[in-house]
Automatic annotation (TrEMBL):
InterPro entries from the UniProt entry: FAD/NAD-bd_sf, Zeta_carotene_desat/Oxidored
Protein name: FAD-dependent oxidoreductase
Organism: Streptomyces gamaensis
PANTHER family given in the database record: AMINE OXIDASE, PROTOPORPHYRINOGEN OXIDASE
Taxonomic superkingdom: Bacteria
Entry-linked Pfam families: NAD_binding_8
């Protein structure tokens, strides 16, 4: 072991502490063999950001090993299977952390999907299915509004749905006062025509609820336009910055008009996420690009020497401590886990990482309901507007290619509905408690009841108790101590959080970051697969530059669409900003903006 220790730059006492066998098995022996070639990369975390970084670097000739604490790749995007639920040769019932959506304003992620081959020809991108309807569902006697989205093509069977569309639009129109509609339109135009300096220097520090002045508006205004950032973007209206929320709305509006889109406005995979994408991606990385995977490996420590990461300490599934040696380290774990790696030496080397301690988190987790027969609901995403737990559901199995009953479960399940739960702090309608104060079973019953309140109308039992076979709640929601615990919280883009987020490069010469908390520079800045993908690309590009890799293509990142006709208005606003003047439409403030941060 002496030669291994010397060549890898790891002292004997450290090898003794962590275990020589584990060290050799997870990279130190390879480090001795290839010391000095400058091409070895350790990617710590196999979520979308980590896999993206591994993909880009392996394509450019780097030797990449991905270390992941779970037994499967994908992070929050992975599918979760109900143990022992498959019989007769069928696979276990598939659950999800939440339902997946690949929007038309995504550009980085689709580019990656097109480069992952699919058995039999084509790419994983071909496993995306357009969603042509969304529905705004209301409880009580309110009208539900189905809305067609690109690339919708009218069919005879859509006639009844279009009648409900018009009825819903008229219902909402007459309930929302004209003065409120005009005010909201002004606030949107003000955001869309603000220069970049104002967006980051002013609107980043104003929360969405106050920006649209929801407190003084009607209940419908609050439910639809205040809470919609939580329903559509998993943000909290009272804490999300107007910059982030407005950026998301702008992307959606342009996408619905087909401007700057990479395909249909809304798409989901034609099967469970792991089967339709992540497993194929990992197989391509492993067999096509030579990426190694070390699953069941939890990184615990980063050792700093002379302004670099000398090695990483990890723990294997059986508890054995192991060492990770590499030339370049890419941390691709979620923010709440990354900050645990920022020990005093790391923080001293890059004080900017200390700011991450102040990032905030929310819960956005999924539940799946397995049905004996397919649900007769709108074939697309359903926004349950009045649900206290801010539910968005999708009849996902209606888009899946394989026949459900013959492929998954016990043969009695004919379909599944996937639901995202974005509010775990508001009391529900069954138990009068917030989701985090319920048991897992109570959460499932409460979600089912809230969906029924929005969909079972006019004597129609769209979701009947008799059709419910079983349910699955995200395995990261854990019971214990009288309150649920979430092992995979969701990064929350709160006011001023841009100042707390790092770039993909750090002050340590060989440490890079690839997760959705990294600053991204496209026109969508939400914790999402798209942002994680862009972060992975930025980390890979930074590794190329640090390694002095010549003669290889740069790692591209894609900017979203900016309407060219708004450029003159943004230029005029930039001139006002530089003179300390508010936006021309800012009739409520009319004071020089404070340039924060």
């Amino acid at each position: 072991m002496a030669e291994v220790e010397h060549r890898a730059g790891i002292p004997r006492r450290t090898v003794a502490r962590y275990g020589a066998a584990g060290a050799a098995g997870l990279g130190v022996r390879g480090a001795r063999r290839r010391a000095g070639d400058g091409r070895r990369v350790a990617v710590l975390g196999a979520g979308v950001g980590g896999l993206t970084a591994a993909h880009e670097l392996a394509e450019r000739g780097f030797e990449v090993t991905v270390y992941e604490r779970r037994a499967v790749p994908g992070g929050k995007a992975r599918s979760q299977y109900v143990p022992h639920s498959g019989t007769g040769g069928r696979r276990d019932l598939p659950g999800e952390h939440g339902h997946r959506a690949v929007f038309g304003f995504y550009h980085n992620l689709p580019d990656t999907l097109r480069r992952v081959p699919r058995p039999g020809g084509g790419s994983v991108f071909d496993n995306l299915v357009p969603v042509t309807w969304i529905e705004l569902a209301r409880d009580g006697d309110r009208v539900n509004t189905p809305v067609p989205v690109r690339p919708w093509r009218p069919r005879l069977g859509d006639a009844g749905r279009l009648v409900r569309t018009l009825a819903g639009v008229l219902d909402e129109q007459f309930r929302l006062p004209v003065t409120e509609a005009l005010f909201l339109a002004k606030q949107f135009v003000m955001l869309f025509t603000s220069c970049e300096e104002r967006r980051f220097g002013q609107w980043e520090y104003v929360d969405w609820w106050h920006y649209i002045q929801a407190d003084r508006m009607s209940l419908d205004y609050q439910l639809i336009w205040g809470n919609s950032v939580q329903l559509l973007q998993a943000l909290r209206p009272s804490t999300a910055s107007a910059r982030t929320a407005g950026q998301g709305y702008a992307a959606v509006f342009n996408d619905l008009l087909g401007r700057g889109s990479d395909g249909p406005a809304d798409r989901i995979f034609n099967g469970p996420t792991s089967e339709a994408w992540l497993d194929l991606w990992a197989a391509h990385l492993r067999h096509g690009l030579g990426v190694r995977f070390a699953h069941g490996c939890t990184v615990e420590h980063l050792e700093v020497r002379d302004g670099r990461i000398a090695w990483a300490g990890a723990r294997a599934r059986g508890g054995e401590r192991v060492l990770i040696g590499a030339d370049w380290f890419v941390v691709a774990v979620p923010a709440e886990r990354a900050v645990r790696l920022w020990n005093p030496a790391v923080r001293a080397a890059d004080p900017r990482l200390v700011a991450m301690d102040r990032l905030q988190y929310s819960w956005t987790n999924g539940a799946q309901f397995f049905l004996r027969r397919p649900a007769a609901v709108t074939p697309g995403h359903i926004v349950h507007v009045d649900s206290p737990w801010k539910l968005v559901s999708v009849n996902q199995s209606a888009f899946w290619r394989a026949p459900f009953a013959r492929t998954w479960g016990d043969g009695e399940v004919g379909g599944s509905v996937s639901v995202d739960i974005s509010d775990w702090d508001t009391p529900g309608i069954l138990y009068g408690r917030p989701a985090r104060k319920c048991t897992r079973a109570e959460v499932a019953r409460e979600v089912w009841a809230q969906m029924q309140a929005h969909l079972n109308k006019g004597g129609r039992r769209v979701l009947d108790d008799a059709m419910l076979h079983s349910w699955w709640l995200d395995e990261d929601i854990v019971e214990g101590g009288g309150e649920l615990r979430n092992e995979e919280p969701f990064l929350m883009n709160s006011t001023g959080s841009w100042d707390l987020r790092p770039e993909a490069s750090t002050a340590l010469a060989n440490l890079f970051l690839a997760a959705d908390y990294v600053r991204v520079h496209s026109n969508i800045d939400l914790a999402s697969m798209e942002c994680a993908n862009e972060a992975g690309r930025r980390a890979a590009g930074a590794v190329l530059r640090a390694a002095g890799a010549h003669g290889v293509p740069d790692v591209p990142t894609f900017r979203g669409f900016e309407p060219p006709e708004l450029a003159p208005l943004k230029a005029a606003d930039r001139a006002r900003w530089r003179r300390g003047l508010p936006h021309v439409l800012d009739t409520e403030r009319r004071a020089a903006p404070s340039v924060a941060g």
